[in-house]
Amino acid sequence: MRPVLRGGSPQASDYNNYRDSFPDLAGRLGMYCSYCERRIATQLAVEHIQPKGLPAYEHLIGRWDNFLLGCVNCNSTKGNKDVILADVLLPDRDNTAAAYVYTMDGGISVHGSLTEPQSAMAKLTLALVGLDKRASTVIDSNGQFVAIDRVAQRMETWLIAEESKHDLQANPSPAFRRQVARTATAHGFFSTWMTVFADDRAVRQLLIDEFLGTAVDCFDAVTTMPVSPRPATGLANGSKV
Predict the structure, then answer these.
(1) Cβ-count burial of 211 within 10 angstroms (0-12 exposed, 13-18 middle, 19+ buried)?
(2) Strand, coil or helix: what is 98?
(3) Which one of 81, 167, 201, 222 is least enclosed by Cβ atoms within 10 Å?
(4) Average pLDDT value for residue range 149-176
(5) Of the candidates 194, 208, 185, which has an alpha carbon nearest to the alpha carbon of residue 100?
(6) The model scores a pTM over 0.90
């Protein structure tokens, strides 16, 4: 899960209409779901970390620090579940890049380096937005694989990343590395690309740089591997990983 840096609010007070924050959020974080990492050209929404549907968080409906971006699937799964900040890992305040492992079958699992409490938080986050669900795939009338959900789309993007890696090996130039990064930002799934190119520091650095809003301080400057814990964000219950 890509760690992001939302930055300070563009305005001095809360938003009267939380939807008005969307251009500011998209401009800083890119058109990606903050949880599943898909690039969403339409129907990407302002996501309330602590849900606006619960009376306890009514005062946070217009609060910038309570906003991320969410796709329909992650938003609908999360719904009005009570989010206790101390109990989950969140991409705006934890180094979620260090918390999860991505595999070619579209799966996401908890990184083995986490402590038992951190692992419990990481699992709760996956369940919160449904990233622990299995794939739903179909084959079309031409026998082609069709990605119809988040897991299947991660699998599809993994294959694109692998093809890009193969092409890069045939043309290992700086210009082609930049093209790989542009291809990645067009498809989304930051963590999938970072995993496929785990042995190519130059591409990984380009991915960190090219995906808008990636928290660069969550990655070691020499190895581009995630650091843990995340440097202090100033947000409540942050830097748990």
Answers:
(1) buried
(2) helix
(3) 222
(4) 95
(5) 194
(6) yes
